[in-house]
């Protein structure tokens, strides 16, 4: 199955906004972005935040910067990027 088809069959989708507040949304950079249950998706968000926290600690000791990201689970019917253009308004 192609990813677009898989997303249509799941109830929750994991999105990433980088940087936070920018309005630049995309599917999260994870192995799995579509979930049947919200609790599963929320667990993935928690795991991502834990992973970034560990990376942030590492970076702080080395004096670098991490690009911030905001992760959220949304129902499959909601696309944070907004409505898609039908192409008829060109």
What does this structure look like?
The protein has 90 residues and is an alpha+beta fold. The protein has a domain at 30-76. The chain is 36% helix and 19% strand. The chain contains two helices and four strands. Strands 1, 2, 3 and 4 form a four-stranded antiparallel β-sheet that branches. The protein starts with a helix and ends in a 15-residue tail after the last strand. The mean pLDDT is 80.
Give the key terms.
about 90 residues, alpha+beta, 4-stranded antiparallel sheet, 2 helices, about 20% strand
| Major sheet size, sense and barrel closure | 4 strands, antiparallel
Number of strands: 4
Residue share in helix: 25-40%
| Coarse structural class | alpha+beta
> Which stretches of 5+ consecutive residues score pLDDT under 50?
none
Termini, distance in Å?
32 Å
Average pLDDT taken over every residue: 80
The H/E string reads HEEEHE
* Tally of separate helices: 2
Beta-strand content bin? 15-25%
Global shape: flat
Work out the radius of gyration: 15 Å
SSE inventory with pairings:
Elements: H1 3-9, E1 12-17, E2 25-27, E3 34-35, H2 38-62, E4 70-75
Antiparallel strand pairs: 1-2, 1-3, 1-4
């Amino acid at each position: 199955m192609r990813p677009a088809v898989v997303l249509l069959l799941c109830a929750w989708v994991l999105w990433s906004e980088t940087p936070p507040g920018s309005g630049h949304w995309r599917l999260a950079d994870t192995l799995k972005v579509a979930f049947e249950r919200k609790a599963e998706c929320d667990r993935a968000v928690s795991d991502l935040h834990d992973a970034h926290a560990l990376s942030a600690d590492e970076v702080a000791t080395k004096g670098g910067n991490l690009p911030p990201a905001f992760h959220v689970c949304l129902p499959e019917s909601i696309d944070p990027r907004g409505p898609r253009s039908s192409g008829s308004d060109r």
